[in-house]
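Protein modeling request. Please complete all fields; requests missing the sequence field cannot be processed.
Requester role: graduate student
Desired output: 3D structure, C-alpha cell encoding
Chains: 1
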Amino acid sequence: MKYKILILLFSLTLMFTYIHTCFAYECPEYIKIGLFYNKTAVNSVKVNFNNGVDAGFEDAEGYFTPLFYSNVIKNITFQKPSAYRLKALYKYDTYSEAYLRAEEIRTSDICASVVFDNGYYVYIGSYENAETAKAAVGRLTEIYGGGYETVAPSANAVELCADESSNPFFIFVQSNEWYLLCNPIGDDEGRISVNGTQYRGSLMIKRLSNSDMTVINKVKINHYLYSVIGGEISSSWHTEALKTQAIVSKSFALSNMNKFKKYGFNLDATTNSQVYFGTSKEDAKTREAVDAVDGKVVLYNGKPAETIFGAMSGGKTENSSLVWGGSEIPYLMGITDEYEDTDNLNHKYAIWQTELTAEQIKSKLASRSINIGDILDVQALEYTPSDRVYKLKITGTDGEHIFERESTRTAFGLNSQMYKVYKKGEAVSKDIYTAEDNVFKVLDLFGTRSVTVNNSKVLTGNGIADFSGAKAYVLTENGTQAIDTQTITSTTETFFEVDPNAPLTFVFDGRGWGHGVGLSQYGAKHMAEKGFTYDEIVKYYFPGTTISD
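Delivered output (549 residues):
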C-alpha cells in the first residue's frame, strides 16, 4: 500500500512539475532599448536627470560599479573626445580624491577632468594636436610637478560635460566588458530626457569599433510596454484590445531579446522591433493594460512565442514562410480573419491604391542596383493562398527582374502584399449591385463583397469615386456619372485612361496594411468590441499557443 501511495505521489509531482514548466515563465525585469546605434549613432547627446545622476559602469554580467554621484549636476552632454589631453600619471583611489586634484589644477585657461581608465586619473588641457600638448608639459611640470603623457582622442571613451560647458568634468574610458550606465537619482520610476524625449529608467552609452556613440535606454520591461502599447495602437481602444497588445508586445520582446546583441541591447525603438516613444505614449489606460497581464506571456512549447503583429491583414493573415521564407511556424499560419472591418471604405488601412510611373519604378530599382532599362511591364506571376503577391516580374528593355515574398511589397513601398496590378488605361470592369438601401454587393479585383456606402468612397478602376446618400458616383470613359441606387439593380462600367499621351503608369489596387502575419490589430479591436477577452483574441490569431500563469 505504501508503495502504491509513493508511486501516486511521484506521479502527481511529475504532473505538477510538467504543468509548471509548460505554463509558467519567468520574465526578466529589465530590457535594453537602442535609441541611437549603427547608422544613427551620435557624436553627442544631451540628457537631463531631474534630480541628479548616479553614474557607474555595468559589466557583461549586469553588475553595476558606482563611479560618481551628484545631485547638483542635472544636465549632461555626452560626447566623443575630439581634443588631445595630458594625463597626469598619478592614480587615485576614489573619484573624490581625483576631483579635488582636478579642482586645484583647473583655472580660467586650463581645464582639468576626472578620468576613469581602470582607476581614477586627471586629464589636463585641451589641445589641437600632440605637438601642442607636449609643448604644455614644461609649464605644467613647473607648476604642478612632473609625470604626464599625451593622450589622443580615444576610440572608446565618452566625455561628460555639465550644463553648456564644452569642457568635460568626467571622462569614461571603457573596456570591452564595461559600459557607462547613468541612473537618475530618485525612485526606480525616475525620468531622464534624451535630446528632449523623456524616458523611464537609465541611460547607457557605448562606443563600438571606434564608432559614434550607441545610446541605450535600460528600462523595466513593464515600463517599456507602457509606452509601446500607446505607440502601437490608440489607448482609446477597448480594454481587452489593449491587454491583447500588451501581452503580444511582451511576448514579441521576450522572443527577440538577442536580436541586437552585437550592439549591446535587446530591441531598438523603431518598427524594426516595436515603436517606442518614451513616456509621451503612455497613459493610465496603457499602464492598466500592461499591469493586468503582468507575469503572463504567450508561450509555444514552453518558450515565448514570436507574436508578430500588424495593422490590418486585409481579411486573411499569411503564413510567415510566404512573407519572410524559412520553415513554417505552426502558430504563424494564415487564417481567414472574420473580424476585420475590411469593407469600411473610409478606413485607410482597409483599401488603398498606389500609382507609380514607369520612371518611378525604374528609379526604385536603380536604388537597389537593379538596372533593366526602361520599364515595359509589371506583372504578378504568382499569388499565395491568401491573395498576396508571391512573385512579381518587372520587364524592361534590357531584361527582367523577379521579386519574391515580402520584397514584392517593400521594393516599391506598397502598403501590403495583397494587391492587384495593372497598367493605367487598361480596361477594368467592375459590377455594382444594390442589395438594400445603401448596402451593395461590389465585384472588384478581389471578388464580391458587401459594402455600406453612407458618405463613403469606392475604389474604381480609375481612382476613388464617391457614394452619397442614394447616389453612387462612378468614373466612366465619359467622365463621372451618377447611378440611382434605389432603382438600378445592376450596372457595369469599363474604365479607360482619358489622356492617351500620359506617361506609362502602373496601378496597384490593394487591401490591408503591413506584412499580414500574426495578429491584426484592427481585427483584435473589433473582436474586443464584440465581447472577446484578450486570451481568446490571442488564441484566435496564434493557434496552438498557451498563456502562462
